[in-house]
Design a protein that fits this description.
By secondary structure, the protein is α+β, with helices and mostly antiparallel strands. 16% of the residues lie in helices and 38% in strands.
Length: 176
């Protein structure tokens, strides 16, 4: 079985037993990690549901990639700068590409516990607006029921106008 996984902004086609070099991932050599972002999975010509596929890998080593030379030059200005860079990377050995369940269902099981706690907190919050409602009653002088047709929108205030800008006084001619 193969899978297309995304890590470090790049996509890799992997199968069990493959070795790949990816952008640096957290972990020590010998640890097992799970690549969560599976884009496509399949076997031969058939395509499987990628949401049900998990890819596990073992970290072989944390290393640096080959050196990249950065050379800057500006013609005719005697400007030359030479620098190098070695990107951090992680070497992985893909141990399993299978139809195992991902961690997402486990998170869903924990969610109902949080919902029960939020419902308990939400009940007192609903009572608070009920206490404020009697204070907002209209004066007793108006006995007429309010309907959508009877309400008139409030008139908008016109924005304050700015005073016109003062013009500069003409300059005196000093051409004597």
């Amino acid at each position: 079985m193969f899978a297309i996984v995304r890590t470090g902004g790049k996509q890799y086609r992997v199968a069990a037993g493959d070795k790949i070099a990816v952008e640096k991932l957290a972990g020590e050599a010998g640890e097992t990690i799970t690549l969560d972002d599976v884009l496509l999975a399949g076997e031969g010509d058939s395509i499987a549901d990628a949401s049900k596929v998990s890819v596990s890998a073992e970290i072989i080593a944390q290393a640096k990639s080959e050196k990249v030379v950065v050379f800057k030059k500006r013609r005719r200005h005697n400007y030359r700068r030479k620098a190098g860079h070695r990107q951090q990377m992680t070497l992985l050995r893909i141990t399993d590409v299978g139809a195992g369940a991902k961690k997402a269902p486990a998170k869903k099981a924990a969610a109902p516990k949080k919902e029960a706690a939020t419902e308990a907190k939400a009940a007192p919050a609903k009572k608070a607006p009920a206490k404020k409602a009697p204070a907002k009653k209209a004066p007793a002088a108006k006995a007429e029921p309010k309907t959508a047709a009877a309400k008139k929108p409030a008139a908008k205030k016109a924005p304050a106008k700015k005073a016109p800008a003062k013009k500069a006084a003409p300059k005196a001619d000093d051409t004597k």
